[in-house]
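Hi again,

Forgot to attach this to my earlier email, sorry! This is the prediction with S-adenosylmethionine bound. I've pasted everything inline since the attachment limit keeps bouncing my files.
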Amino acid sequence: MCPEPIHRPRKRFGQNFLHDRFYIERILTEFEVDPKQDIIEIGPGKGALTIPLLKKYGHLHVIEIDRELAQHLEDKCADLGELHLHLGDALKLDVSTLVTEGKLQICGNLPYNISTPLIFHLLKTIPDGSLMLFMLQNEVVDRICASHNHSDYGRLSVMVQAQCRVEKLFEVPSEAFSPQPKVTSAVVKIQTDKTRRKKLADPKVFEQVVRQAFGQRRKTLRNALKKLLLAHDLSEVSVDSSSRAENISVEQFIAIANMLSKP
Ligand code: SAM
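Structure tokens for the complex follow:
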């Protein structure tokens, strides 16, 4: 077997490589997917997940920004199966163009610096019934899964939960990586849900409402949404206008946006 090529981890690409077999196995067990559908890994790095995934499923799309790592990975995976390498920025790629049909199954130990924008980006194009299994900074996972009236609840929680079912699976200590990150990580399962998505009359209006509400989260909702509400009153959807964004449930945000979406 060829020796592992020397690679200096690049901080700007959030390169903390997972090496602990226990956590690699746990992620793979949770990412049990349909082999007939497309499978994507974001940020394969040195292949901690890529190699077992390719051995198991025989095909895999990977999106990697680091040219050097991508080259090493292609060499390592040459005989393992069909590796479709997309060299570039996952933030600029429309993943739905990689699907031949149906849902997407995506996993990734994501670079922490882009994880939130990447999730927002994926939500815009990912088809119904898709699965995303991501390792993220623990705090980000807590924000994704938080309910209203909780301090972690914010724009990310509402935007994700309005379209998806979410579940925090387990935490991963920094010792499981090399180099070690300064923070604890966690694995989250995010599944797009057609029924939830259908409730949104106009996703653009919804996004605007949530952005405005949390942009000024200390203000009452009446004040934070003043420019959007115009002639409408929050009592039309049984929302107390003196409450703050963090007290409004996802369902209530949907009701407010749908009221404002009516012609
Ligand atoms: N999956 C590997 C593992 O678990 O060891 C590597 C994870 S490392 C935290 C993040 C990976 O994402 C790195 O390989 C990095 O080069 C890649 N990456 C960083 N920014 C990216 C971007 N914008 N688009 C695609 N890949 C990116």
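The longest strand covers residues 164-172. Residues 13-18, 42-46, 48-49, 63-66, 69, 89-91, 109, 111, 114 surround S-adenosylmethionine (CB under 6 Å).

That should be everything now.

G.
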